[in-house]
Write a structure and sequence with these properties.
The protein is an alpha+beta fold. The protein has eleven helices and eleven strands. The chain folds into two domains: 3-158, Ribosomal Protein S5, domain 2 (2-Layer Sandwich), CATH 3.30.230; 165-280, 2-Layer Sandwich (Alpha-Beta Plaits). The chain has helices spanning 66-77, 101-116, 123-133, 177-182, 186-189, 195-204, 207-213, 219-225, 228-238, 260-269, 291-294, and strands at residues 3-20, 26-46, 50-54, 84-90, 145-150, 154-157, 165-170, 215-216, 243-246, 253-257, 275-280. The model has no long low-confidence stretch (mean pLDDT 91).
Amino acid sequence: MGLKFKTPAKVNLGLHIHGKRRDGFHELETIFQMVSLYDEIELEPLSSGIELECDTPGVPTDDTNLACQAAILLQKFCHIKDRGVGIRLKKKIPFGAGLGGGSGNAAGVLMGLNRLWNLKLKQEKLISLASELGSDVPFFLTSPCALGMGRGEQLTVLKPSSKFQVLLVFPGFPIATSWVFQNLKLKLTKRENNISILRKNIYLSDISALGSQLYNHLEPVVIQRFPEIQVIKNQLQTLGALGVLLSGSGSTVFGIFDNPDKAKVACESLKGDWKRVVTETIGNFSEFCSEEILDYP
């Protein structure tokens, strides 16, 4: 008996870089927010081995894929030799888009295999394993809205705001996170840390004030190399978005709206051959994930 479930995308409502760490990563503060764009995953038990199928060309199906890495990690940690899994992945979240699609897939596989293989690992242990896979992966096991610190893996659950619309615009090309951080010049991007203000606006569900405070330290680096990002931002602002920002290291730009009709009109009015979709914020895991997946011991 297999399992089917969905894994969501995320946007970063704020991203503040404090500086480079001794381990080569950057110390940061960010606010993660899940949105209603999903990949679909099906897990089928195998007697051995890990096999991945994906419906999207260009997405790796070997052990460089985070979903495979998650399964391998669980096998090693739990000393599993007599069970395998077939992973079928239907992608709707663009690859290399700053939306955390791969990280969400990895977290979903950890949760799903915990159930499928009857491992009975507690949530805290899965989160610990997730941090070995990538900085964003633990978030997808924690809460639909959270403050991330350290590399992003040190998480504080935040009470989500009332729902608002998030118009995602993907320009059609991926951006490597490693390239963005290698080209980051902090002296040129220094500005006031507004993460605490963003947290307050989320708590108050003040979407207009939240939009006015969106910021991302990585954005100037990306815009300098990819001017299309600024073109998309300008259009979204003209079309009435309350706030516009690059998500993570890009390449997706998002605009936030407190009115579904305005978001829909803006989506239809955008000029340019870009993929775009109106989503809304997620307030609870139960909106997309079944109870059997989330049923930790």
